């Protein structure tokens, strides 16, 4: 059985949202155990919906249909349809957070981001909040597959949407969070103890002194690139991109990791996700595929007018910061190996991502150093 831990006070969150969010956010103190099977979970979901939305409070249970959309690595998505007189009147999405995810995800930061991202017209509309999740409008679209992202027309659409996303304004600190988050993960990941002796033995093969030194070296190089700070999604894998082909509309969803961050990191992290669920990093986009994406990101309306210098700058940024993506998600995997109840080889995921970092380190360090040397020579002319 999973935990039913409240990760925030729903009434306080809804009250706070009233001051800076156009629509009313409906609160409920209820929580739902995400580990339950759908038949056991359904009555609890109906109770939540009736508690949250007073217009539904007297409806018969037969008016509701609950379906599982997806079970992500950190949360569960449910679709709830409300029928009256055999006609679907409304459909919502219930997002249930998995146990212990607040150990990895800053939920207050996520809430702040969700409020303003949805107000800016991205993703689903925020409707309600409860003890261990939130309720949003239903997006009538399909989730992309990893192979979809490399299709030229879709890649251009994603690039254009990402450029718009990067211009969202979120109140508060605009400090980039990458290295803060990496060091937080490092601190947590380096002091774990596993009950399983085999996992503990595998964990003990990791040299955290080496990982520490790699982070310091990589940060030093990335800082020299002076990548612009923008508001970033930070987890733009195929599962967080949805497409409605009939309306030709693209959506970015799931803002659990969104924060102010480096432009190069958000794009490099997205490129790393071309590897897909099988983690086949040979699918990482080649230079031509990257340039196609970067042209549409830099000048969405006139991609062919992008200068070679601007292309090179962003290409170097993205590929250098893709190394930081490997470090970030490798450390994330270690923490999840200890905290998550989901059956997934998180420990193996650490080694997979860290191996990719080491496999590409020399290539991308040389790329960045050559670029920086060229910039220095230009300035001295």
UniProtKB/TrEMBL annotation:
Pathway(s) annotated for this protein in UniProt: Phospholipid metabolism; phosphatidylethanolamine biosynthesis; phosphatidylethanolamine from ethanolamine: step 1/3
GO biological process: phosphatidylethanolamine biosynthetic process
Pfam family, one: Choline_kinase
InterPro entries: Kinase-like_dom_sf (IPR011009)
Keyword terms, alphabetized: Kinase, Transferase
The EC number(s) this enzyme carries: 2.7.1.82
First-tier enzyme category under EC: transferase
One GO term describing the cellular component: cytoplasm
One GO MF term attached to the UniProt entry: ethanolamine kinase activity
Sequence similarity: Belongs to the choline/ethanolamine kinase family.
Cited PANTHER family: CHOLINE/ETHANOALAMINE KINASE, ETHANOLAMINE KINASE
Protein name in UniProt: ethanolamine kinase
Taxonomic source organism: Glycine soja (Wild soybean)
């Amino acid at each position: 059985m999973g935990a039913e831990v409240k990760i925030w006070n729903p009434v306080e969150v809804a009250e706070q949202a009233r001051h800076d969010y156009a629509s009313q956010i409906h609160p409920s103190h209820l929580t739902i155990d995400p580990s339950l099977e759908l038949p056991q979970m359904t009555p609890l979901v109906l109770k939540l919906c009736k508690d949250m939305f007073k217009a539904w409070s007297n409806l018969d249970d037969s008016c509701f249909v609950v379906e599982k959309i997806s079970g992500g690595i950190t949360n569960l998505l449910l679709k709830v349809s409300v029928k009256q007189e055999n006609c679907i009147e409304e459909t919502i999405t219930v997002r249930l957070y998995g146990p212990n995810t607040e150990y990895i995800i800053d939920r207050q930061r996520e809430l702040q981001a969700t409020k303003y991202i949805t107000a800016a017209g991205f993703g689903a509309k925020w409707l309600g909040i409860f003890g261990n999740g939130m309720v949003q409008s239903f997006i009538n679209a399909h989730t992309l597959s990893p192979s979809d992202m490399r299709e030229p027309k879709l890649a251009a659409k994603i690039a254009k949407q990402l450029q718009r996303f990067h211009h969202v304004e979120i109140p508060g600190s605009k400090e980039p969070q990458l290295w803060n988050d990496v060091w937080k993960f490092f601190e947590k990941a380096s002091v774990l103890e596993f009950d399983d002796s085999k996992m503990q033995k595998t964990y003990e093969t990791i040299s955290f002194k080496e990982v520490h030194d790699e982070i310091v070296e990589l940060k030093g190089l990335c800082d020299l690139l002076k990548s612009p700070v923008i508001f970033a999604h930070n987890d733009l894998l195929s599962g967080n991109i949805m497409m409605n082909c009939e309306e030709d509309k693209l959506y970015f969803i799931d803002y659990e990791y969104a924060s102010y961050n480096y432009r190069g990191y958000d794009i490099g992290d997205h490129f790393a996700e071309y590897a897909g669920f099988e983690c086949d990093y040979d699918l990482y986009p080649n230079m031509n595929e990257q340039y196609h994406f970067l042209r549409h990101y830099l000048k969405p309306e006139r991609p062919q007018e992008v200068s070679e210098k601007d292309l090179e700058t962003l290409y170097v940024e993205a590929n250098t910061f893709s190394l930081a993506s490997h470090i970030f998600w490798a450390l994330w995997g270690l923490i999840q190996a200890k905290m998550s109840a989901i059956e997934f080889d998180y420990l193996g995921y650490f080694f997979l991502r860290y191996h990719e970092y080491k496999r590409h380190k020399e290539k991308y360090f040389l790329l960045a150093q050559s670029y920086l040397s060229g910039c220095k020579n230009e300035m001295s002319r």
